[in-house]
Structure formats: C-alpha cells, structure tokens
C-alpha cells in the first residue's frame, strides 16, 4: 500500500501546503522565506519556470480566505514575485501531519512515501524518500519479505532525515532563526536530511 498521506488531526491551528508555478526572470538560487506561522520556498524548475511553494497555519490562511495571492501580497515574498506572472492555479493540500516512519497494522502492508511518514517539504527530500521506499516496498512485496523487515529497513533509511527535520522545524519557531540560518552551511543541512543509504542491508531476497 502506497496510497496517500495520513489525515491530519481535527481542530487546532492545522497546517496547509500550497504550490504553483510562475513565469518570468529566473536564476539558479534556492530561496526560503521564513515567517512565524509560515515558510515559502522559491526555486527555478524545468521550462524556465519558477516554483513557489510553502506551508502556513490554517488561522493565518483563513484571514485571507485561503487566497494565496493575497496571503503573499506583502513583504519580501511579494517583492520577489513582482516581476513574475502566475501560470497555473494554486494547488493546496492539508491538513498536514508530520510523522516518522512507523508500522501499520496488518500483514503484507508496505506503506511508502507520505503513507509511511511525512517529512518537512523545505528539506527537499520528500520525493527522494518516496522513490526509495516505493522501490523497497515493491521489492519486498514481490518477494514476500515480511512487513516487519520492510519497516525495519525503512527505519534505518529514514531515521536521521526525519529526526533532523523535526529539529529544524522546532528551530523555525525561534524568533532569530533567520540569523542562525546564515551561519549553517547548506551542504550540511542537505546531507543530514538525505536517506542513510549505508544503513541499508544487502537484500537477501
């Protein structure tokens, strides 16, 4: 089973994600704009387009009727997007629930991707995690490897990325995180949020 993320909790100030593409001047910079209740990432993608995506709390988005253009209409992000034009409707998803890889009930169940665990999008490792665990799930299911063994292998693969992402998520709530971010090497964050392939055992199946 590799279908979908876990549903979010009811009530509270839940988190929602949003994404779209813009056309206009582009470069190879990867930008992250941090707020007390949100963060927004901006980076170039294929076709000379610029991808804009982020996460914000439900309370903040409701103030704008979930109209993302209005939500991003002021501040540094607005200045960054001013020379660009949106080329597709905003895609939204939520509520989001961050979680580590954990076992599901039932035999012959091999959750992969977001169904296995949801990691912070700003790390850029979600799709990579989904590809690796999807490959592992298919191999284990095809060779009738136990779900328990599969989950152990997923835990070895993803423990560090999920733990580091959880720590970064806590730091993002700190008022002075923007000053700290300039002191942390980008390759350090990149390496610590990637799957630990050396922890994977050689498949005997």
Q: Can you give a write-up of this model?
A:
With 205 residues, the chain is of the alpha+beta class. The chain folds into two domains: 15-96, D-Amino Acid Oxidase, Chain A, domain 2; 113-199, no CATH class. The protein has seven helices and six strands. The chain has helices spanning 58-63, 68-71, 75-81, 126-142, 147-171, 177-181, 186-192, and strands at 15-23, 30-34, 38-45, 49-57, 85-86, 91-96. Strands 1, 2, 3, 4, 5 and 6 form a six-stranded antiparallel β-sheet that branches. The longest helix is centred in the C-terminal third of the chain and has 25 residues, at 147-171.
Keyword list:
alpha+beta, D-Amino Acid Oxidase, Chain A, domain 2, 7 helices, 6 strands, six-stranded antiparallel sheet, globular, 205 residues
Quick overview:
The chain is α+β, with helices and mostly antiparallel strands.
Counting DSSP E segments of at least 2 residues, the number of strands comes to: 6
Number of helices: 7
Largest sheet: 6 strands, antiparallel
Q: Based on helices, strands and strand pairing, what is the structural class?
A: alpha+beta
Question: Percent of residues in helical segments?
Answer: 25-40%
Distance between the termini: 19 Å
Q: Mind telling me the C-alpha Rg?
A: 19 Å
Low-confidence stretches: none
Shape annotation: globular
Number of domains: 2
Mean pLDDT: 79
Strand content: 15-25%
In N-to-C order, the SSE pattern is EEEEHHHEEHHHH
């Amino acid at each position: 089973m590799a279908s979908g993320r876990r549903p979010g909790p009811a009530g509270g100030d839940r988190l929602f994600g949003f994404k779209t593409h813009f056309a206009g001047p582009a470069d190879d910079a990867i930008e992250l704009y941090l707020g007390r209740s949100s963060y927004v990432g901006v980076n170039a993608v294929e076709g000379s387009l610029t991808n804009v995506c982020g996460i914000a709390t439900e309370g903040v988005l409701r103030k704008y009727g979930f109209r993302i253009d209005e939500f991003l209409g002021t501040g540094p992000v607005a200045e960054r997007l001013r020379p660009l034009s949106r080329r597709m409707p905003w895609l939204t998803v939520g509520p989001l629930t961050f979680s580590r890889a954990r076992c599901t009930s039932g035999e012959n169940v091999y959750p992969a991707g977001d169904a296995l665990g949801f990691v912070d999008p700003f790390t850029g490792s979600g799709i990579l995690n989904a590809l690796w665990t999807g490959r592992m799930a298919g191999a284990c299911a095809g060779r009738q490897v136990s779900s328990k063994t599969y989950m152990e292998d997923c835990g070895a693969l993803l423990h560090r990325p999920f733990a580091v992402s959880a720590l970064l998520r806590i730091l993002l709530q700190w008022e002075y995180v923007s000053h700290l971010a300039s002191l942390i090497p980008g390759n350090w964050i990149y390496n610590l949020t990637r799957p630990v392939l050396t922890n994977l055992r050689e498949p005997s199946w």
